[in-house]
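To whoever is covering the structure queue this week,

Two jobs came back overnight. Logging them here so there's a record in the thread.

Job A:
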Amino acid sequence: MTRIGIAGIGGRMGREVLAAAQSEADFAVTGGLVRPGSRAAVASTLGANTPLHEDPANLLADVDVVVDFTNPDCSLSLARECALEGRPLVCGTTGLSAAQLAELQELSNRTAIVYSRNMSAGIAALLSTISELVRALDGFDVEIVEMHHRHKTDAPSGTALAIAETVASALDRFENDSLVFGRHGVSPRQQHHIGIHAVRGGAMPANTSSSSPGRVRNFGSAIALMDGGRLPSAPSARRGFWRNNRQASMRCAT
């Protein structure tokens, strides 16, 4: 029986992970991490007999692995605690800066970490095939448009960034020179540009589209992936538990 601790258990994704873990006979959720001062409020709405903690050290004392979908600062703080205690971490937090990602990589020298900006099986399949696609369409312009609900705080989404980085790598382009985040005013498109555009509103599920408009006769191709809310990511996070075989390493699923 694998004992799981969920950071942000009272949040939208935390609740999905809780439900997914409870549906599996070989997993037991033995603790949840909540914001300081929120334990009573979360306990009243969670509807689960799961111990809630405001201190990460208390959570780590009774778990085999931690699943984290919170925010960048919380995730890095938790990763440091996991490294100190030797607890594996599955992290799906988006919006991490380059410096935070580098620190997460360094911490993986001390404990096993699985990190993914999007744990959906559909996105994993997309990223595994998009390199071949954009190389076959070399010379086409690449534009990425992603849409999320109004509550998402980071833009562009981690999924859009993962797609853009995959495209840039496949086309041997430097990300800092190629990625263009939206356009305003007089802004001619350059041949090497990879455009990224973010839309926020309502309660829409994740929707990411990668478009490659052609240069001849306005022919173009597009890939669109609509994620059915947060639930598809929860089983993938669940599959991350056992990959953490307690050997220090970092696996990036996207």
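Job B:
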Amino acid sequence: MARPVKAYLLVMTLLLLLPLQGAAQRLAIKTNVLSLATATPNLGFELVTGERLSLSISAFGSANPYWSDHSLGEETGTSFFAMRPEIRYWFNGRPLTRFYAGVNVLAATYDFPLWGMLHKGTAAGPGLSFGYVINLGKRLDLEFTSGAGLLFYWGKRFSGDTPLPAEDTMPDTKGYKLTPNQLGISLVYIIK
């Protein structure tokens, strides 16, 4: 991951940890089954930090999933890795139950072929999410979530004829886009 993305992710994670209280907290582990259906391994943790607040951290990524496009050569398959820390506000006063709204930060590295070009780079940006959690049992929940955000990206594009240059060259593509940054149906197991 590029140095600016690492620093940005570290600062945002530390800021999200500020509301932690010393009281007993609930901890949950979760996985997004929609991501698993696309061969994208993922894992998330959620920690209840207050009466209406929780902190969620998710990581997901894949190297050459089954849907990879190798049209530009065997070394040009799809790979990406992302992390998303998020602070959630629960409207009913009981975290991990019913409706919530969240503020998150997505940071990612990517490497994928698209329209005859290989795209390599990093992306990061803030986002908003909304969701609903259904309690299936004492320790098992089903979470529905969606979100969008502003994604800043910087990277390089290569055609199939161009050899890949050294990693330390300057990016030739950068910008920002308003984009969906979250969609999921997750199974949640409450550990304590």
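Note for Job B: The two ends are 33 Å apart (CA to CA).

Please reply-all if you pick these up so we don't duplicate work.
Q.
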